[in-house]
Amino acid sequence: MGNFGKMISDMRVVFRSGRTKGVEWRVAQLTALLKLLDDNTDNLCDALYKDLRKHKMESAIMEMNVTKNDIVLALNNIHNWMKPAQVDRDLINKTNSAYVRYEPMGVTLVVGAWNYPVQLIFLPLVGAIAAGNCCILKPSEMAANVATMVEELIPKYMDQECIKVVNGGIPETTALLTERFDLVFYTGNSSVARIVMAAAAKYLTPVVLELGGKSPVYIDTGADIEVVARRLLWGKYCNAGQTCIAPDYVMCSPETQEKLIEKVKDVLKEFFGENPKTSDSYGRIINERHFQRVKKLMEGATVAVGGEVDEGEKYIAPTVLRDCKLTDIVMQEEVFGPLMPIVTVRDHNEALNIINDREKPLAMYIFSNDKDVIRDLKEGTSSGSLLVNDTVVQAGLCTLPFGGVGNSGMGAYHGKFSFDAFSHKRAVMEKSLGMEAVNALRYPPYTDKKLSW
Ligand code: NAD
């Protein structure tokens, strides 16, 4: 294990020199990051295939392009984002200047998860650089091929003294977390998030926590089931269900459940052919541990579609579990795999109560044409994001913040929000030494006369 104390104190020296603060450094590093991605698209897509059997189209859309778009947005807006924001002034401050200055936090740590291993390391890095920080990246050891590529490529393209990669598992992350950082940005599960936050608390280091949870779907009786099925299944089964904002479970009426199950069969054929196992558009479970975990979630449930598994290939078929009860094990934890439990409900109010009885989810999906139903569910619940009549695509719009609430996380990023997440908003007021008479009122001795003025 490396000497992280020395690594971090060396970075602090460079940070204090001011190198990362100028716009030139930020633009140069963002440009270099874009070049890294452009030059190595094929290599990174190969690594994603080896780790997750991701099709290169899925990698292009959901890993490479989102990251490149964010870099281009940052490059186009960085001058504006960095501009101090003037604030309104009251009468007493009319002659003073008052503004918010966006300053880098300092030396930051980004800990990534394995399911979108390119995006989850590079998107936070865009924010770290745009805001002028030094940054240590800790890719997930579970996506080992991508982690190795990140470790190899970062020093080739980026400022080696300001941006570093530490590869490793729990011991390395634990050792890193004993050090003092100015911000820790963690993506992963809510249990480890508690460890991260407790470690950060020692130094009162702020944290951004991008976590998961059971993101619910409500399908209203009037919704066009053919369209619903396609939009729902794409979000559920891309990356073999291993997406933090994947629709986790579905709530609908018993009649809608029947219609949905029939449509699911058609749509799965459309997407993956007769046998999804032979489709190159369908992924695999990341490792043996997660394969066993997801497989176990099927225990006791009624399989309506799919259910086949192949341990050797870490393959789990796109699966629908019908008539699930809230007490079933599949309803106790985030599925994070290709199982879609359906819970039948009387109406949207019952769905609303089920959502509110649980931890606040990262995302929530409503399929409905009924404005009242949409309003009731929107106003009656809380979630990191809410998407009506589709799944997952809200994360692709970088003018929306991406983040959780409660158990699904704290803080947000993407686009300008990433710049904000890695910036300290320093309140600055500048006065002149003149006009001293204005201050006379606030100085002692305090008198009733001064108070009544
Ligand atoms: P993971 O196992 O890759 O862990 C994430 C990181 O935490 C890794 O870098 C790992 O080294 C580190 N880690 C693991 N155990 C640790 C420990 N005991 N102490 C210190 N560090 C430790 O990923 P995961 O947690 O399996 O990821 C899946 C979860 O992440 C799901 O809940 C998913 O919803 C969530 N997720 C959220 C987002 C988001 O943006 N909100 C994105 C992807 C995944």
Automatic annotation (TrEMBL):
Keyword Transmembrane helix applies: yes
InterPro entries listed in its UniProt record: Ald_DH/histidinol_DH, Ald_DH_C, Ald_DH_CS_CYS, Ald_DH_CS_GLU, Ald_DH_N, Aldehyde_DH_dom, Aldehyde_DH_NAD(P)
GO cellular component labels: cytoplasm
All copies of domain Aldehyde dehydrogenase, residue ranges: 8-427
Signal peptide: none
Matches recorded under PROSITE patterns: ALDEHYDE_DEHYDR_CYS (PS00070), ALDEHYDE_DEHYDR_GLU (PS00687)
One of the record's GO molecular function terms: aldehyde dehydrogenase (NAD+) activity
Keywords of the record: Membrane, NAD, Oxidoreductase, Transmembrane, Transmembrane helix
SUPFAM superfamilies per the UniProt record, alphabetical: ALDH-like
GO BP terms in the entry: aldehyde metabolic process
Catalytic machinery residues: 210, 244
Membership in a protein family: Belongs to the aldehyde dehydrogenase family.
Protein's name according to its UniProt entry: Aldehyde dehydrogenase
Organism: Littorina saxatilis
Higher taxonomy: Eukaryota, Metazoa, Spiralia, Lophotrochozoa, Mollusca
